[in-house]
């Protein structure tokens, strides 16, 4: 009976957040409404990414036109997906809708289109007041007539350069509460990550998985395409205290500073007789962090001589992933401080980051502290 009950007792992401409602009495359902609009954006991107992949790998599409077409794969990922998805009121959604696109039709890259969908969904929720997107140079201040109390920082399609080869990519988001709804400014999004009220990512891969924390642990939801609902599949995710994997772009090794170089050396040639860690690096942050969260280990994008602040963006890459790691029992460090304590001064500011299993990150912290002492 228990199994039957679980089968019919569908815990959707909306229901799960509503269950959390009592812990946020001040939100009065506004957060649930905001989240439902973020979920809409994720469903759109999931559908669009799958359609592009379908055209990139037409073997499953069965359409002679798509298979015989000579359009180079790179065009598919640039294709005006609005038509492909029928968003632009296009009637013929068949594969050759793409063929018409290269006759002077407006073509949009998937990340630009995804950004437009998220911005419009967030504004139309009536629950946001400031938006910061990786795709937009400036912050978006929502018109007072549609203004709510949440500030959302997001990367609509992180890792999008990987789409042509089918590697998992994702949307990353963080949510702050506005300080004063009647006096909104950039300061509302230049807050330390520890002030976020929620953070999450949606990974578009073999399945569409949304991982979310509202400050009471981390939960994973998988999109059931037949229902169009995200169903709770990974309740209360906890990252192993120590892991066997390390995840870094070794191609930057010649530019690393001493603590990072020493840490990676220790991963490969441990002196305590333990087995070396395995290297796993996908080059798509959502995929690398998702694996780290579930399997344990450490993900690092350190500073180096070429990029003294590393590559990853504070507001919509470092903070949301650090928030999730801490909520799952791990930790996140910038090389100087706890990542969530960092106070950003620019909306697209970068920071080095070391995040993952608590004990693994502790080792990096100790190496930086030792280096500090020498200085
Ligand atoms: P590199 C993707 O472009 C991204 O922003 C993150 O998703 C990923 O972790 C990182 O850059 C990969 O950077 O320099 O290793 O290719």
Helix and strand layout, with pairings?
Blueprint: H1 2-8, H2 13-20, H3 30-56, H4 64-68, H5 73-78, H6 81-84, H7 97-101, H8 110-124, E1 128-133, E2 140-141, E3 147-158, E4 169-177, E5 198-204, E6 208-213, E7 219-224, E8 229-234, E9 245-247, H9 258-268, E10 278-279, H10 285-295, E11 298-301, H11 314-327, E12 331-333, E13 353-356, H12 358-374
Parallel strand pairs: 1-3, 9-10, 9-11
Antiparallel strand pairs: 1-2, 3-4, 4-5, 5-6, 6-7, 7-8, 11-13, 12-13
The structure holds 6-O-phosphono-alpha-D-fructofuranose.
Characterise this structure:
- With 375 residues, the chain is α+β, with helices and mostly antiparallel strands.
- It contains twelve helices and 13 strands.
- Strand 9, helix 9 (258-268) and strand 10 (278-279) form a beta-alpha-beta unit.
- Helix 3 (30-56) runs antiparallel to helix 8 (110-124) and helix 9 packs across helix 12.
- The longest helix is centred in the first third of the chain and has 27 residues, at 30-56.
- Bound molecules: 6-O-phosphono-alpha-D-fructofuranose.
- 6-O-phosphono-alpha-D-fructofuranose is lined by residues 158-159, 161, 249, 283-285, 288, 311.
């Amino acid at each position: 009976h228990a199994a039957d009950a679980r089968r019919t007792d569908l815990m959707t992401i909306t229901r799960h957040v509503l269950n959390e409602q009592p812990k946020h009495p001040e939100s009065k359902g506004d957060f649930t409404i905001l989240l439902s609009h973020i979920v809409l954006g994720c469903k759109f991107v999931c559908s669009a990414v799958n359609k592009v992949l379908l055209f990139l790998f037409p073997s499953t599409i069965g359409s002679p036109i798509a298979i015989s077409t000579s359009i180079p794969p790179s065009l598919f990922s640039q294709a005006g997906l609005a038509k492909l998805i029928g968003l632009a009121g296009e009637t013929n959604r068949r594969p050759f809708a793409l063929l018409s696109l290269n006759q002077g039709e407006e073509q949009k890259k998937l990340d630009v289109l995804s950004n437009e969908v998220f911005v419009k969904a967030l504004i139309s929720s009536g629950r946001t007041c400031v938006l910061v997107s990786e795709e937009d140079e400036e912050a978006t201040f929502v018109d007072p007539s549609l203004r709510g109390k949440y500030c959302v920082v997001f990367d609509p399609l992180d890792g999008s350069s990987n789409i042509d080869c089918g590697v998992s990519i994702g949307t990353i988001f963080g949510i702050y509460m506005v300080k004063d709804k009647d006096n909104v400014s950039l300061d509302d999004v230049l807050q330390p990550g520890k002030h976020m009220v929620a953070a999450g990512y949606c990974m578009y891969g073999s399945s569409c998985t949304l991982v979310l924390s509202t400050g009471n642990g981390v939960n994973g939801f998988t999109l059931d395409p037949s229902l169009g609902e995200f169903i709770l599949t990974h309740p209360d995710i906890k990252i192993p205290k120590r892991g066997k994997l390390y995840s870094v772009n070794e191609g930057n090794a010649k530019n690393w500073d001493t603590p990072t170089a020493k840490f990676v050396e220790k991963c490969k040639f441990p002196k305590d007789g333990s087995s070396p860690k395995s290297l796993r690096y996908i080059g798509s942050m959502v995929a690398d962090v998702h694996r780290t969260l579930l399997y344990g280990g450490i993900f690092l994008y350190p500073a180096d001589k070429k990029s003294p602040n590393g590559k990853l963006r504070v507001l919509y890459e470092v903070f949301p992933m650090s928030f999730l790691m801490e909520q799952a029992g791990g930790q996140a460090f910038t090389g100087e401080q706890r990542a969530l304590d960092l106070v950003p001064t620019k909306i697209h500011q970068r920071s080095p980051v070391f995040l993952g299993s608590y004990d693994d990150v502790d080792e990096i912290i100790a190496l930086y502290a030792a280096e500090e002492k020498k200085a």
